[in-house]
Design a protein that fits this description.
By secondary structure, the chain is α+β, with helices and mostly antiparallel strands. It is built from twelve helices and eleven strands.
Length: 351
């Protein structure tokens, strides 16, 4: 039997020197090692996305009647994600306004893994993104419950606030994170494009009144669980970007934007850039947004305010979760560059 130090060394080397197909084996070895001594158990490693979002090993642990999701940090960024998610889940659990939806939220439990590992209750259901390809006719009908949930949460926890009053938290902190995570946008032409983003955001937020309340911050079809007949929401997970005083409207638009990207196969950056160029939210998105109680033109002088703010939170959260995003040519080209380029074009047309 291998010693702990040898097992750790072998596990760390596998992804570097073996084909990527063996990375799953490496993760299973790590997961079993992390919960050694927990007794009989069944472990399923959550499949890695094509572009890693965070330095996390995520796996489901079935131990007797207990089903848990464990997140173990691989690096400092991953440790920050798990620490933040632990705080958010504890806040959610203590908020009496959320009592009617308590069963939809994960709970932090004692971890069978080492310090720094986040263990939370597993939730029932299937991610909405898996149901979309199998929905014949109207894919929007399958995800309608996810939008109605946002309307309920917004009504229970939200209050109107001037966007300019919340600019430090809603805009400036996101811009700072994005700038720190994208080194190539700190000089030359790209720096000018980033500055154009700042000006475009300032113009969009001027005079806007948005809803301050519980905001997931990464609400998309992959983070919402559905089940039953008729279909209902059975869980919402991955709350590391959540906050009790965020701009609620971005959750609805982020979900619709991710759905449109899934249905069309087009990257988010191009879709948002088109919206900026048109100066309004596409008509096709409006019925679904209405289910979330959101009129994208209400409370804003500039109709692109919510799309641009939603995109900003999305990309800023990505670079916070993993520095790999800010160095990824593909992600920068398809998700960031089209929006910054459109902001630069807008700045060039101003008198």
């Amino acid at each position: 039997m291998k010693t702990p130090s040898k097992m750790s060394s072998l596990s760390g080397l596998l992804p570097l020197y073996f084909p990527r197909a063996l990375a799953g084996l490496d993760d299973r070895l790590r997961a079993h090692w992390l919960v050694r001594g927990a007794g009989p158990r069944d472990i399923t490693v959550v499949r890695r996305p094509t572009l890693p979002k965070a330095g996390l090993l995520v796996f489901e642990l079935r131990h007797g009647a207990e089903n848990l999701v464990l997140k173990h940090p691989r690096d400092e960024a991953g440790a920050a994600v798990t620490a933040r998610e632990r705080e958010v889940l504890q806040e959610l659990g203590a908020d009496g306004r959320l009592t009617p939806w308590r069963a939809l939220l994960p709970r932090v439990v004692g971890s069978p893994g080492p310090a720094g590992t986040l263990a939370q209750t597993a939730l029932p259901g299937v991610p909405a993104e898996r149901l979309i390809p199998d929905t014949s006719g109207d894919p929007y009908a399958a995800v309608a419950p996810a939008m109605r949930l946002l309307a309920d949460l917004r009504a229970a926890t939200g209050r109107p606030r001037k966007a300019t009053d919340r600019a430090p938290a809603w805009c400036e902190s996101q811009l700072s994170a994005l700038s720190a995570g994208m080194p190539r946008y700190r000089s030359g032409r790209r720096a000018a494009e980033f500055e154009a983003l700042r000006h475009r955001l300032d113009a969009a937020m001027a005079g806007a009144v948005l809803t301050e309340g519980w905001t997931h911050g990464d609400y998309h079809p992959g983070n919402v669980l559905l089940d039953g007949t008729p279909i209902r929401v059975t869980g919402v997970f991955d709350w590391s970007s959540g906050r009790a005083d965020g701009p609620c409207e971005i959750d609805a638009y982020s979900f619709v934007l991710a759905l449109r990207s899934t249905l069309t196969g087009r990257p988010l950056g191009g879709l948002v850039a088109e919206t900026l160029r048109a100066g309004r939210v596409p008509d096709a998105d409006r019925p679904l947004l209405a289910l979330a109680g959101l009129d994208p033109d209400h409370g804003v002088a500039d109709p692109v305010a919510i799309p641009l703010l939603s995109w900003l939170w999305h990309v800023a959260n990505n670079v916070r979760k993993s520095p790999r995003f800010g160095h990824s040519y593909g992600w920068l080209t398809h998700t960031v560059a089209p929006v910054l380029g459109e902001c630069a074009r807008w700045a060039g047309t101003r008198p």
